[in-house]
Amino acid sequence: MRGHYDGLAAKYDEHWVYGPEYVPWMSGRICEALRLSPADRIADIGSGTGLFTREVARHLRPAHPILCVDPSRAMLRELGTPPPPTLTPVVASAEDLADGRARLPYEELDAIWLKESVHHVTDQARTLRGLAHRLAPGGRLLIVMLPAAIRYPLFKAALARFEELQPDPAVIEGHLRQAGLETRLDHVEHELRIDRDRYLDMVRARYMSLLSTFSDSEIEEGVEEMRAAHPEPVLVFPDRFAFVLGQRQEDGT
Prior knowledge:
Blueprint: H1 2-8, H2 12-16, H3 22-34, E1 42-45, H4 51-60, E2 66-70, H5 73-77, E3 87-91, H6 94-98, E4 109-115, H7 124-132, E5 135-145, H8 156-165, H9 169-178, E6 182-195, H10 196-204, H11 216-229, E7 234-247
Parallel strand pairs: 1-2, 1-4, 2-3, 4-5
Antiparallel strand pairs: 5-7, 6-7
Helix pairs in contact: 3-4, 7-9, 10-11
């Protein structure tokens, strides 16, 4: 999977910016859900190129640099050389942070988010428990993830495989609760409008990690299936996300 993202790094932002309003919308929802303040010590785990982190930092103007944590050096290089003063790259995985293998500039964190990366975590219960232990009293941990089923205009085999592999947000909420956090599960939705041919090119580029599980020929067959099913020039579909929030009690328990 690291190789998949290394290969996508240079064009990752291009694939994920559906339209000019998408990144500000998602970044704003993250800020609201975590109730971020400029004084918070923050980590974006699985930050990739910092696509959403940069927008959060622009809006928040943090007193402490936001940690962009990702195992892919190629993705983190897209932050810039040097990176902006509001962002600090950390080459590490979620498991590295949870197990204490990754050294951070902050002993505790006030806010952590993982956007669409929890499905890459091998032992989700253990890793989320470890991340919860890195929170300061009152600290918040947010998991942004797709629901168990999506209504993307993908080919049928991709949609079926997504449902096979995608974790249930309710299960993720249970892991946070078992880690001792007070939890809440909400959903947000945003309507996407994207040129059909551009979306087909994104699928060919395997913009979703799910698509890396298909061969070149399977991708091309899927693209032809999508082309036949969607003759309209602009695709319109809902992008729905589960926001799973956990908060450590103020007394640190």
